[in-house]
Description:
Elements: H1 3-12, E1 16-20, H2 37-46, E2 51-55, E3 59-64, H3 67-76, E4 84-86, E5 91-96, E6 104-107, E7 110-113, E8 118-121, E9 133-134, H4 147-159, E10 165-168, E11 175-178, H5 180-192, H6 208-216
Antiparallel strand pairs: 1-2, 2-8, 3-5, 3-7, 4-5, 4-9, 6-7, 10-11
Amino acid sequence: MNVLAWYDAYVGNKLEVIPLRPRTKIPYKWWDKKWNSDWNRNFFCDNPYSNMGFRLGTIMDIEGDTPEANEKLMKITANCPHPMYSSSRSIHHLFLNPDPTFTIVRYKGMEFRGAKHQSVLPPSRHEDGKKYFWLPESRFPIPKMPTSVLNLFKIARQKKKPGGKKIHCFSCEEEHTRNFRRINLEIEAFKVFDQKWQCQGCRTIDVRPICREIRKRGL
């Protein structure tokens, strides 16, 4: 399948597909504006090597950051056919979001991601050239969240710590609220590139690898 065939298939399954910078998870600045299918399709036509993502909100992406978390998610979702695909280190599980206004929470190695976020889609490539790919047992359409996952999601929401750190993006100058530890890591990572902090929609560099190195050094 070429990039436009992938695009049409995803849009046919009600995904709001957006272009990402080649071999990154970074969307272009307009990703969170009003979505226009024809405009985004034309962009892929002109830029076929762009990675492909989609906007979350009505759809939730659940993934594990550890082998144990991935194993647990595979187990509790086994009886509910749904779309799922693999990245370099985790399995993504897509379900309808029971609360389309919900944004994000992390719990026991699992991440529940919704509104104001986006996820990468197959056949996008990682920086090292490896592809995202759909699992053979993956099934569309995207179903409602099964009880087993919904109960876990409710627990995760209750455990979410309130508050965060407010920070302004150097490019768009909009205010954002982020987890204290995460934002401090990102600020330090941007300093490595001699840049000030930018939000996800404005940044043109992937600071995740630098954040991981900083975390390993205990800074």
